Amino acid sequence: MELWDLYDQNRIPLGKTLHRGQPVPEGCFFTAVSIWVVNDHGEILLTLRAPEKKSWAGYWENSGGAVQAGETPLQAAVRELQEETGIHATQNELHFIGTDRWCEGFMDVFLCHKTVPLEKIVLQPTETADAKWVSLEQFHAMCRQGVVAQPIVDRFETFSPQILDFITTCKKT
After folding, report:
1. Among the four 61, 83, 94, 125, which has the fewest Cβ within 10 Å?
2. Which pairs with CB-CB distance under 8 Å and at least 24 residues apart come from 26-30?
3. How far, in Å, CA of 99 to CA of 88, rounded?
4. Which domains does the chain have, with CATH numbers?
5. 147-161: pLDDT as tens digits
6. 0.85 cut: is pTM over it?
7. Interior CA angle at 38 toward 20 and 42, to 5°?
């Protein structure tokens, strides 16, 4: 059973944990990570949420998930990327760009430059059902079509300057 460390509104540890799936107590928050992977073509890696997911099943997203008890956000980002896609990244390959706060927690956002053929992506059963590389234009079109999970769309908008700069630096001409 997965455990999460709990924090107060200022991200000060409360010395308490929560089992995944339990409601987050009022006044408590947990930490999660979001990883935007960009390849040499300036494309973004998206994964399709498995149909059995409780929220946003069947919607496209980027990799991410909750930070487990005792884990740093950077360690969680490495783990989540590996679990959901089979992509191994070192901590030095992940670039922290900021934290987004939502009703239940803190979302630490990372960027990663990796070029991995789709046939090398290893999907995590019950988490990811498909994967694809999309151009920025394709991503925006998918957002307009409503097939990208809304929290992902919102997070992209929040961090778009950093993500767009990163796409430009990753793109090989």
Report:
1. 125
2. 29/101, 29/104, 29/105, 29/106, 30/4, 30/5, 30/6, 30/66, 30/67, 30/104, 30/105, 30/106
3. 23
4. 3-116+125-170 (3.90.79.10)
5. 999 999 999 999 999
6. yes
7. 150
